[in-house]
Amino acid sequence: MRDVPGHEHGGNNTGVQASFRIADLSNPILQPWTRDALKMVNDKIAAGGGGFTPQVSCIPLGVPAYLLHPAQPVYFIQTPKEVVLIWPPNHEVRHIYLTDKHSSGLKPTWFGESIGHYENSDTLVVDTIGLNDKTYVDNYRTPHTEKLHVVERFRINPDSKGLTVDVTIDDPGAFTMPWHAMQRYRRVQQGQMAESSCAENPTNFLSYDMDPIPQANSPDF
Known about the structure:
It is built from 1 helix and 8 strands, in the order αββββββββ.
């Protein structure tokens, strides 16, 4: 989505006062219910509430919002059968399986099922379906349905100093048409992956009302 003109989101190195994102409700691609959901977020922020992304509450961002993780690097691990993307602070791991078709009878999950292949030896094309409707497509908290279909094209820049990802989003349940976005990464020498546990952070960030950190009623093992 995009900012309301005159209310651009600011932050570090932008020259604009840091603020929460205010979505432009006039965007013509929004289905009515999607616009209503964004208006509720806008109204909450206008009333002095928080507009944090789910990741501050240790909630997986899903796809395509995985590409919007802030501050920390994303690690890429390539093997003959899959590509693995890891964002350490919340232990968020995406598996991209290098196969030519999706599994049958997929049950919706946080990251869905991503399959990929290489084009011209320099572009990784990733096709993702089977996503649940508990995540958002961006940092404006734009909702989506389980019909969401995402295609990403990862390509190293010609100077080898960065990575560009072209993204196509198609969800007729939430949008009136497919739409396109782009993310750019810069390459850094980060060193070894740091271990961290998001759930050990405070549950109330700067006294704002925010999503509760997920808690399990029973151990996984």
